[in-house]
Amino acid sequence: MSIPEITQKLLAAKQNKGLSFADLEKILGRDEVWIAALFYRQASASEEEAKLLVEALELDASYIQELITYPVKGLGPIVPTDPLIYRFYEIIQVYGLPIKAVIHEKFGDGIMSAIDFTLDVEKEEDPKGDRVKIIMSGKFLSYKKW
Amino acid sequence: MSIPEITQKLLAAKQNKGLSFADLEKILGRDEVWIAALFYRQASASEEEAKLLVEALELDASYIQELITYPVKGLGPIVPTDPLIYRFYEIIQVYGLPIKAVIHEKFGDGIMSAIDFTLDVEKEEDPKGDRVKIIMSGKFLSYKKW
Amino acid sequence: MSIPEITQKLLAAKQNKGLSFADLEKILGRDEVWIAALFYRQASASEEEAKLLVEALELDASYIQELITYPVKGLGPIVPTDPLIYRFYEIIQVYGLPIKAVIHEKFGDGIMSAIDFTLDVEKEEDPKGDRVKIIMSGKFLSYKKW
Amino acid sequence: MSIPEITQKLLAAKQNKGLSFADLEKILGRDEVWIAALFYRQASASEEEAKLLVEALELDASYIQELITYPVKGLGPIVPTDPLIYRFYEIIQVYGLPIKAVIHEKFGDGIMSAIDFTLDVEKEEDPKGDRVKIIMSGKFLSYKKW
Amino acid sequence: MSIPEITQKLLAAKQNKGLSFADLEKILGRDEVWIAALFYRQASASEEEAKLLVEALELDASYIQELITYPVKGLGPIVPTDPLIYRFYEIIQVYGLPIKAVIHEKFGDGIMSAIDFTLDVEKEEDPKGDRVKIIMSGKFLSYKKW
Amino acid sequence: MSIPEITQKLLAAKQNKGLSFADLEKILGRDEVWIAALFYRQASASEEEAKLLVEALELDASYIQELITYPVKGLGPIVPTDPLIYRFYEIIQVYGLPIKAVIHEKFGDGIMSAIDFTLDVEKEEDPKGDRVKIIMSGKFLSYKKW
Amino acid sequence: MSIPEITQKLLAAKQNKGLSFADLEKILGRDEVWIAALFYRQASASEEEAKLLVEALELDASYIQELITYPVKGLGPIVPTDPLIYRFYEIIQVYGLPIKAVIHEKFGDGIMSAIDFTLDVEKEEDPKGDRVKIIMSGKFLSYKKW
Amino acid sequence: MSIPEITQKLLAAKQNKGLSFADLEKILGRDEVWIAALFYRQASASEEEAKLLVEALELDASYIQELITYPVKGLGPIVPTDPLIYRFYEIIQVYGLPIKAVIHEKFGDGIMSAIDFTLDVEKEEDPKGDRVKIIMSGKFLSYKKW
Amino acid sequence: MSIPEITQKLLAAKQNKGLSFADLEKILGRDEVWIAALFYRQASASEEEAKLLVEALELDASYIQELITYPVKGLGPIVPTDPLIYRFYEIIQVYGLPIKAVIHEKFGDGIMSAIDFTLDVEKEEDPKGDRVKIIMSGKFLSYKKW
Amino acid sequence: MSIPEITQKLLAAKQNKGLSFADLEKILGRDEVWIAALFYRQASASEEEAKLLVEALELDASYIQELITYPVKGLGPIVPTDPLIYRFYEIIQVYGLPIKAVIHEKFGDGIMSAIDFTLDVEKEEDPKGDRVKIIMSGKFLSYKKW
User: J55-68 burial string, b = 16+ CB within 10 Å, else e?
Assistant: First the structure.
């Protein structure tokens, strides 16, 4: 899972500036997860968004072009080895079919879009140990019949 | 992705009884996703839960033993081929590293547990098209140093 | 690539009745490719469609239930070995990135839906040798930013 | 899916010149998808085509030799991770056998050529959302018996 | 590499009748390799060919239908383990690119068809040890430009 | 399928000299396919052959040592993606078992050697389209019993 | 690694008769490893050898036909999981290239045949712990140049 | 199967000095196969062995440190593509279970060690063609019960 | 990960008798993990051990033969999908090289045997949550030089 | 299994200073295995730990930043080829299900955490050959029901 060079430079600049993704959320008006996706070149910015980011990170304007390019997506090995990312793979292995069954029951035959899609990460404070909350929201797409 | 025989029988009984997972949620006092996981033998019931389910589905009591057994989990092919399930795999490929970056920023080095974990599926009505909402909540586990 | 049992029975019944997929197109009011997808349990019928098909094939009404079930989709080996199907895989290997480049140029960042999607197979008569024409039409989905 | 160096240079030159693949279609007299395939070194140009392209992009004549070389083709990972490209893989998984069934019914035993083959990408404007139209046309090749 | 049931029955019948593939070549008027491909359901017979074979093997007429069906082709594991078959895989690994270079030099950009294709196996007697001669003949297909 | 550096230099030199593999066949007294295999470092030359080749291509004498080294062989991905090379893989998938059946019938239990082996590529002119003819000849090796 | 049914029956009969492979070595006049290979259907017997074995094991004569058939060979998973068999795989991973280097130095470019080949297993008694001795002897095959 | 840089330098030095592995056997007092394993960094030398080798090859003393390091072992692709090395893989596929059966019969449940292990390569001169003899000797290790 | 039939019968008998592996430990005089390994046919019993087990489970004496057979070992998919078993795979991915570094520092070049090996599972009670303790003990095996 | 550059520099510095992981254990107040994991960038240090290490190794302060970064974890090939590391993989293949059975019997449905986890490597002196002792301790995590 080699990290693209531009990602490394963006991360280093962000660290030098002492900015968190949450700080960038305020500057760009986009969610921190989407911004992180932009860092890893899994999303493409508008020219305006790219400029805001490049300014915030005090980077060279030449980065703008790269950030607005539509990337070839998908970062990883077939089965992720990083424990944090693997847990999401495990959730598919264990809960994939049950989720499918419940979605079909609620919506009929179709899927949850991963394109018309948002994902938030929240921290739930809990005396028994804080919890990571992931909220995904994807448009339901019915299979078209023809 | 061959469905275990017991799953097929449970699904058939549920259909004959005209029950949804949401109906079973009221009977068992467990979330519909967890119940669907039990159907696919990705979760194990207590004896009481097993009895309630077997009664609700009017199945033979011999199913109880099977439902309380701790299963060998994991259902699928390495890369899921079903479009609905694949979208979750795609989310890992595209948003896996960004999610990791944001979780680490909020919590430090560690992971979201997939064991001390809940998952809900909700229907968000939306005039532009209903949306599937997935809410995961997993305990944050810090890496122990020793 | 083991063919599901129901598919084998549907194909046998269709052959006994001397019906082509094109004949069924007229009976069901659905495209022949979609009907073939239903045969291979890659699509789910409405109750009415299932009844029409079962009647046309003079099959037992018990098939209706199975045809309206939402199937777990995806039929094949990771790389298809059948020469006809492999050619489509080859088209992805060879023309995948070029298609991506052209779609992005015409539409921006997003994808062609494979759900809000139709596919037609036509025969183009040609003195130098008939041609297979495949027409796919999928809704363009823009990446949502959030 | 590492992009060959020549591809990167061609894409950069095209961008500097502000040319789209559609613009190049007019200059070369070849379809934009074929030209994109040439960019990704999945097709080989005639010397004349190479010259036209190199001139249009104001590149060094040394590129001509490379563009007329017959490349080793196939660009990608076994299962594509890019969502746009993956959808075509999914179409094979879901509709591969149905397409095979319909082609055989219309043509007999044989395949659609991926060599004597053309592929067009069109934009279908639609008030409910524009659609991507892919038209493939491949010569039908009957299995020779001997 | 599980052998289809029909193949086993055809092979057993052939053995009972004491017939070689070369004998069947005379009866069917087709090459022995093509007939062997038919046995392994990698080729489809015309009704007449199927009848001739079924009669020669004194099998039930019900086999005819199966022999004229267009099969899903491809028999094996990804890398063949049988030493005889593996040698052909090794030839691709070792001589694949050299063959490609020579074919391109002689014919230009294109491929050898595996559909408009014949394959013969001959025995070359040789005092230093008999030799297996494989003669493949496939139509050269030029890449179509569009 | 990354081409070794020496191969690239040999191919470039051959092109600069305007020599075909068929021309080199006359100079080296070896078949063009074997020479192409030497280019791709899938064969090792004698010192004399290496000298002849280096002289013909007007290369530095330092290449001789490399050309006489016994290489680690095997060039490619597990399943070849290049369409020309893939067709040979397809031939194994489709005709592998039939070829095995016919060879065993003609020769008994054993294999065709891929070491005591020659391979020729010929152009068969044909008004319906030229054909690629591949002739392999490998010594039959009987399984030794002990 | 599913064991073929005939292997299971041969092994059971051998056990019932209280015979070791070493005992069968005396009866058949073949090495015990070759006989074990015959049991696992990785070798084919002559009719005489098959009769001797069937008699020794007091099996039905119908086994003879099966034992003289030329099998499709290769038994296992790609990487063996059984610890005893895996050690041989490990030897290839660790000593494969060194063995290649030494064989080439002693013999030139070529291979050790695995067909004109014998393999013996011996027990070396040793006060520090008995040792397994494996002796392979394969004909050296030089690469033919053509 | 990329060869480590140190291996390439050791092989080049050995060639420049005109030494065979057999020559080095006399200098180091270790078997030629073990020395070849050291070259490929599949074995680690004592300081004394490393010095002897570095002197014999007239290399810089800085190589000593690298040669005494305990390496991460295993050189190759999962299934070896080099024909010489593949034959050993084939031997596992074909004779793996038979060898297991014979070892168990002679020794009980356990394995042949690949660590307390030696491997020799010998040339057996034979008028019908020289033979490669491989002698492996590994300590038998019984499964401990606890 | 299909469980062998004998394992299912042993597990069912154990459950019917209300015995834990810890109870069987007292009866057989073997560790509970080893006994579980015997259940899953990953270990072989002596005749006496097999008898004790069969009596304790009140099973038919015919099981004895099966339990003393030396099994083909290895149970699972290449990457385990069951979360409990996967964690051990993750430990190899994350701590494999660090463990290797520490073992080499303490012992020199060699390995921990997985054959002369014991493994215990203990429950460590802990007010912050009980802990699973795994204790492995394997003989250190030095690489033999030869 | 390419070792990250920082790991190579840390290992070289450690060697130059003549320090073992056990020595570093005293300096950092962390276990030697955890420190080795830090070297291989499978663990992240606190700023204080990073400083102590950098000072002990007399490295540049610029390493501190890298050592406190949360790494993407997982080092290796899917099936490890290094013999020492492979033995742990083998233990999963052979004892994975038995361990699962015993843990479930002692603790119920859940897993051993690999995050709230420690691992020690000890040397057990033994006249019959020293033994490697691995002690893992991971918090038991019960599956949450919801």
Answer: ebbebeeebbebbb
Does an interface of 3+ CB pairs under 8 Å exist between H and G? yes
Q: For H24, which DSSP code?
A: H
D101, two tokens: 């069934």
> What's the confidence (pLDDT) of residue J90?
97
Q: CA-to-CA distance for J49 and H97, rounded, in angstroms?
A: 52
What is the per-residue DSSP string for F71-124?
Answer: PPP--S-SS--SHHHHHHHHHHHHHHHHHHHHHHHHH-SEEEEEEEEEEEEEEE
Sheet holding J110-124, edge to edge: I110-124, I131-142, J131-142, J110-124
- What does the DSSP assignment read for H49-106? HHHHHHHHTT--THHHHHHHS-PPP--S-SS--SHHHHHHHHHHHHHHHHHHHHHHHH
Is B90 part of the annotated catalytic residue set? Answer: yes
The vertex-B119 CA angle with B115 and B120, nearest 5°, equals 165
Residues of C annotated as part of the active site:
87, 90, 113
**Whether H142 contacts I115, CB under 8 Å:** yes
Q: How many CB atoms lie within 10 A of CB A14?
A: 23
Question: Which of I105, G125, H49 lies closest to J20, judged by CA?
Answer: I105
Pair of tokens at residue E28: 């069917």
Q: How far is F60 from chain E (nearest CA, A)?
A: 23
Mean pLDDT of chain I: 96
Residue G69: strand, helix, or coil: coil
Measure the CA–CA gap between B115 and B73, rounded to whole angstroms: 12
CATH number belonging to domain D83-142: 3.30.1160.10
- Distance of residue H60 Cα from the nearest chain G Cα, in angstroms: 23
The b-or-e profile of B54-73 (16+ CB within 10 A means b, else e) is bebbebeeebbebbbbbbbb
pTM to 2 decimal places = 0.95
Closest CA to G89 of A76, E125, J89, H145: J89
Whole-number Å distance between alpha carbons of B59 and B67: 12
User: ipTM value of the model?
Assistant: 0.95
Q: What is the pLDDT of residue I3?
A: 84
Contacts of B77 in chain C (CB under 8 A): 74
At J114 the three-state DSSP class reads strand
Map out the domains of chain J as residue ranges.
5-68, 83-142
Q: Answer yes or no: are the C-beta atoms of J35 and J24 closer than 8 Å.
A: yes
Continuous H helices in chain B: 5-16, 21-28, 32-39, 47-56, 62-68, 83-107
For B52, counting Cβ atoms within 10 Å of its Cβ (0-12 exposed, 13-18 middle, 19+ buried), the class is middle
pLDDT at C1 over 60: no
Instruction: Please list every residue in chain B whose beta carbon sits closer than 8 Å to the beta carbon of residue A42.
Output: 94-95, 97-98
Inspect the interface and report whether the beta carbons of B86 and D90 lie closer than 8 Å: yes
Chain G neighbors of E82, CB-CB under 8 A = 72-74
Assign I118 to helix, strand or coil. strand
pLDDT (tens place) for every residue of chain G, 146 residues total: 578 899 999 999 999 999 999 999 999 999 999 999 999 999 999 999 999 999 999 999 999 999 999 999 998 789 999 999 999 999 999 999 999 999 999 999 999 999 999 999 999 999 999 999 999 999 999 999 99
Asked if F135 and E133 count as a contact pair (C-beta separation under 8 A), the reply is: yes
Instruction: Encode pLDDT of C95-142 as tens digits.
Output: 999 999 999 999 999 999 999 999 999 999 999 999 999 999 999 999
For residue H62, count CB atoms less than 10 angstroms from its CB and return exposed for 0-12, middle for 13-18, buried for 19 or more: exposed
The candidate with the shortest Cα–Cα distance to G101, out of E87, H95, H39, is H39
Rounded Cα distance, H12 and H18, in Å: 10
- Name the band, by pLDDT with cuts 50, 70 and 90, for residue H3: confident
Work out the angle between the directed axes of helices I47-56 and I32-39 (0-180°, nearest 10).
90
Q: Which homologous superfamily does the CATH classification assign to the domain defined by C5-68?
A: lambda repressor-like DNA-binding domains (1.10.260.40)
